[in-house]
Amino acid sequence: xxxxxxxxxxxxxxxxxxxxxxxxxxxxxxxxxxxxxxxxxxxxxxxxxxxxxxxxxxxxxxxxxxxxxxxxxxxxxxxxxxxxxxxxxxxxxxxxxxxxxxxxxxxxxxxxxxxxxxxxxxxxxxxxxxxxxxxxxxxxxxxxxxxxxxxxxxxxxxxxxxxxxxxxxxxxxxxxxxxxxxxxxxxxxxxxxxxxxxxx
Length: 200
What we know:
The chain is mainly α. The protein has ten helices and no strands.
């Protein structure tokens, strides 16, 4: 059993505070980046994270049916962001905010040599900007966070098959854009394939 699953089990079973802290540490940075990617302000993201984990702690006895903690946290966090933003904005601005997810290409930091990292990050960033906000959000959840297709479907309010198609089409679009004449070299194409092959 993975350590996060073990911590989740111990937290649900005993209210173990060390396990709760481990869960928080595991997901807090990814949640914050996700909120920023959705276009929310830093303080709103911080408040939503605090509220999400407070709810998690207080309602743990009602969460025994939850099998995927990551999916639950990201869905709860996104809903809380929307609730907080509604206090300060009208519904139209909330809806438009949900349609502008953007990815920061930080996942490359650990796999690309220092001397080529800046160039490749810029090029891959340009490629990712060719995707729709939904495609970017799905790639972030799948590749960076490691959430299943089923959980992505829940977060994005779509069927699991639709989530699979969304990721597949995003992958195909990345490959198409990367191989257009004189735009990107072979290194970038291979990097993208290696980065995103698990989306298939």
